[in-house]
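testing teh design pipeline on a random one, pls ignore if ur not involved
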C-alpha cells in the first residue's frame, strides 16, 4: 500500500469509479468526493495526500478549489484532470502550483507517474519541516543578541550594518559571530548560514 492517500474530486460518477479502480489496483488508498465544496469541508481533518482534481465541475471548478487550498496554506499537491481543449485552464493551474495535469481518457502509466510525483512533493515538504525543526532546536542555545546578529548575517548584512542596527560596534558583532560559530559547532560561515536558512532566518527581507 502506498504511504499516502489520493483524494479524488470529480463530479462524474464513471470517472470516480474508473480512476478509483485504477489506483486501488496499484495499491493506493483512494477517497472520492463528488464536488470541491465537499472535499474542502473534509480537508481540515484529512492526512497529507495527493489531490486529483477535475478542472471542470459545476458550482466550484478545479481552479477555485485549488485557490482555496492555497489560501488555507494546505499542503496538498494538486494534479489537475482535464478534458480535451482545457489546456489553457491546465496552464493556469500549473502556474498556481499544480504538480501536473493529465488528460482524459487517462493512461494508467501517466496517472501513476503524476501521483508518484505528488507523493514526492509531500515527502519533500515533511523533510523540510523536520529540517526546520532541527535547525530551530539548534538555535535554542543562543542568546537574544546572538540571534539578532545571526538574523543580520542571514539577511546578508555586513558587520558594520548589523552593529549600527543593534547599537553595538562591528568588533562586538565579530565577537558574537565567533560565539555563534562556537556554540553551533561550525567551522565556516557557509555552515552557519545553512543552519540559519534551514531555521527560516532571513526569509522576509
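output:
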Amino acid at each position: 500500500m502506498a504511504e499516502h492517500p489520493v483524494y479524488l474530486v470529480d463530479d462524474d460518477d464513471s470517472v470516480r469509479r474508473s480512476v478509483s479502480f485504477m489506483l486501488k489496483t496499484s495499491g493506493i488508498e483512494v477517497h472520492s468526493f463528488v464536488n470541491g465544496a465537499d472535499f474542502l469541508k473534509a480537508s481540515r481533518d484529512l492526512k497529507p495526500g495527493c489531490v486529483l482534481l477535475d478542472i471542470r465541475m459545476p458550482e466550484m471548478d478545479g481552479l477555485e478549489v485549488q485557490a482555496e487550498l492555497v489560501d488555507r496554506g494546505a499542503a496538498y499537491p494538486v494534479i489537475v484532470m482535464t478534458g480535451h481543449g482545457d489546456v489553457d485552464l491546465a496552464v493556469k493551474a500549473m502556474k498556481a502550483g499544480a504538480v501536473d495535469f493529465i488528460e482524459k481518457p487517462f493512461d494508467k502509466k501517466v496517472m501513476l507517474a503524476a501521483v508518484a510525483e505528488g507523493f514526492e512533493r509531500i515527502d519533500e515538504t515533511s523533510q523540510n519541516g523536520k529540517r526546520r525543526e532541527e535547525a530551530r532546536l539548534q538555535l535554542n542555545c543562543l542568546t537574544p543578541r546572538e540571534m539578532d546578529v545571526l538574523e543580520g548575517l542571514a539577511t546578508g548584512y555586513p558587520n558594520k550594518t548589523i552593529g549600527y542596527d543593534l547599537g553595538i560596534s562591528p568588533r562586538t558583532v565579530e565577537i558574537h559571530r565567533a560565539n555563534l560559530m562556537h556554540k553551533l559547532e561550525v567551522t565556516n560561515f557557509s555552515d552557519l548560514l545553512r543552519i540559519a536558512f534551514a531555521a527560516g532566518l532571513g526569509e522576509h527581507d
